[in-house]
Design goal:
Layout (H helix, E strand, L loop, with lengths): L1 H34 L1 H6 L18 H16 L4 E6 L6 E7 L10 E6 L5 E5 L4 H11 L4 H31 L11 H15 L1 H15 L1 H20 L13 H11 L4 E6 L10 E7 L9 E7 L5 E4 L4 H14 L4 H37 L1
Antiparallel strand pairs: 1-2, 1-5, 2-3, 3-4, 5-6, 6-7, 7-8
Organism: Novosphingobium piscinae
Keywords: Membrane, Transmembrane, Transmembrane helix
Protein name: PepSY domain-containing protein
Length: 374
């Protein structure tokens, strides 16, 4: 009975590992430069900005939005409407997304960047650089939501492979002292010892990365469901109103001041304009974040009437959604400075080594059998 159980665990470990290994190698390879995305982005040709971070102050938002609408009209030859304003908690950079109408599709949107400290235009932001492609490849294999959900399933298989590997390692440990590398034996045994030792040393990290990666894969549909449910509830509490014509939009600065007065101590992350997926037909949806690297991933939405500038509703993110959002910085290791990023990179390289050695062990085991059949 015990031997049958061990064989079942071996079968589980082998096939869950094999199914997900190719995709995990891709994720590890693309994830390595993404760990240092801030540092790599800083090497680009963008001008060095100094001043107060845009989330903390600077030029009036209404003036910057007007400049973005002017740039859009120059580029497209037609009038546009503001869709989003995005803030930075690190630099004076602020972005304004403009489209032809309030419900514009992502392909119709144009993103303009400005220095909020000076009002200087920094140009249009295009998401077609190398880091943007690597991020898309890492999150959804360039396939959108289906690719994201597929990688979530691969993450679950990875967790099963890790758990089954631990179950198989326990009886192995009873025969050999921890850390034993049997020198002078066959190359296969040496590779097996390395695979087992390195795998158990980084087990805690791989479990965290596998779990948070799987959570992140399902984060977008879960966040969209929460956003829709929360906004519907907030709009219902504020009273239904017909969709607002963009010409009637009031001051964004006044709306932000009203929301900040009700929820001090937080920083604005972005503002969604009326009629879009992140707001109602009449309100500015202002999403606040914490002011630390970890709490910056927790959102607090506020609805402000776009005409009067009065606060209509304010909500706190539920605990379940907070846990989901906190899985993102934990996955990329970008909340503890450059030192933690180096640790994440070394552990990522060790994971690549474990995956590759496991693949070689499987191939080496099946090769004699296939040769004998020929």
């Amino acid at each position: 009975m015990r031997s049958c159980t061990i064989r079942a665990w071996e079968w589980t470990h082998r096939w869950t590992s094999l199914v997900c290994t190719a995709f995990l190698l891709l994720l590890c390879l693309t994830g390595l430069p993404l760990i240092f995305h801030d540092e790599l982005d800083a090497l680009g040709p963008r001008p060095e900005l100094s001043g107060v971070p845009s989330a903390r102050g600077g030029r009036l938002l209404d003036a910057i939005i007007a400049a973005a609408l002017g740039d859009y009209r120059t580029d497209r030859g037609s009038r546009g409407v503001p869709l989003f304003v995005g803030f930075s908690s690190d630099t004076p950079e602020i972005t304004v997304t403009v489209g032809p109408h309030p419900a514009a599709a992502p392909a119709e949107m144009r993103l303009y960047s400005y220095n909020r400290a000076t009002g200087q235009a920094l140009g249009e932001v295009r998401g077609d650089g190398l880091m943007a492609v690597l991020l898309k490849l890492h999150t959804d294999l360039l396939l959108g939501l289906p690719g994201m959900l597929f990688l979530g399933v691969m993450g679950i298989l990875f967790l099963i492979a890790l758990i089954s590997g631990v179950v198989l390692y326990v009886p192995f440990m009873r025969r050999l002292p921890f850390g034993t590398l049997r020198q002078g034996r066959s190359s296969r045994i040496a590779r097996l010892d390395e695979h087992n030792l390195l795998g158990i040393v980084i087990l805690g990290w791989t479990l965290v990365i596998g779990a948070t990666g799987a959570l992140n894969a399902f984060a977008d549909p879960l966040t969209a469901a929460w956003r829709q449910r929360e906004l519907s509830s907030m709009v219902a509490g504020a009273g239904q109103a017909p969709r607002l014509d963009p010409v009637r939009y009031g001051s964004v600065d006044r709306a932000l001041a009203a929301a900040e007065a009700a929820r001090g101590g937080l920083l604005p992350q972005f503002i969604g304009f009326p009629g879009g997926a992140w707001s109602s037909g009449r309100h500015y949806a202002i999403f606040f974040q914490g002011d630390t690297p970890l709490t910056s991933h927790l959102l607090t939405p506020a609805l402000v009437d776009a005409v009067s500038g009065r606060l209509a509703a304010l909500r706190t993110m539920p605990v379940s959604m907070q846990a989901l959002m906190l899985s993102r910085p934990l996955h990329f290791g970008d909340y503890g400075g450059f030192g933690l990023k180096l640790v994440w990179a070394l552990l990522d390289l060790a994971t690549i080594r474990v995956l590759w050695s496991g693949l070689l062990l499987w191939w080496g085991k099946r090769r004699p059998r296939s040769q004998g059949m020929s």
